[in-house]
Write a structure and sequence with these properties.
- The protein is of the alpha/beta class and about 150 residues long.
- The protein has five helices and five strands, in the order βααβαβαββα.
- The chain has a five-stranded parallel beta sheet, with helices on both faces.
- The structure holds 1,3,4-trihydroxy-5-OXO-cyclohexanecarboxylic acid.
Length: about 150
């Protein structure tokens, strides 16, 4: 089972940005926890972070070529704007989970809009770093049930 975690703009600054929304853990620390959990579940986990929309699109294209089974994506602010990322996820055409550390629905109205929620397997929002952990368990359980 191959899963890719994609993080978009400003998420490389976790631990140094708005702790009340995003918690105090750095992305590298979150990824370490995910690596351990993936090992336990026998998932091959890949990590990608970029502050650039096109690079995220290209990472999703690469996921198609590499036959990745599922994606966990926190597209950051691009969640609310990026038709290009939506289109790339449609090309991917396999399950993905939209993740947010903060509860986007408890924040500004522009964060209530997502370009990708309606095509996602599901959305996990508001559990700080645990949002990724919960998403990993969710995609694992989903793929276990559906993957031949
Ligand atoms: C975020 C929420 C977005 O609105 C914001 O632009 C981010 C992070 C989150 O994880 O809560 O960069 O995706």
């Amino acid at each position: 089972m191959k899963v890719l975690i994609i993080n978009g703009p400003n998420l490389n600054m976790l631990g140094k940005r708005e702790n009340t929304h995003y918690g105090s853990q750095a992305l590298s620390e979150i990824n370490e926890i995910l690596k351990k959990e993936a090992k336990r579940l026998n998932i091959k986990l890949g990590f990608f972070q970029s502050n650039t929309e096109g690079e995220i699109v290209s990472a999703i294209h690469k996921a198609v070529e590499e036959n990745i089974d599922g994606i966990i994506i926190n597209a950051g602010a691009y969640t609310h704007t990026s038709i290009a990322i939506r289109d790339a996820l449609l090309i991917f055409n396999k399950p993905f989970i939209e993740v947010h550390l903060s509860n986007v629905f408890a924040r500004e109205e522009f964060r209530h809009i997502s370009m990708i929620s309606d095509i996602a397997l599901g959305v996990i929002s508001g559990f700080k770093e645990d949002s990724y952990y919960l998403a990993l368990l969710a995609i694992y359980r989903h793929l276990q049930k559906t993957k031949a």
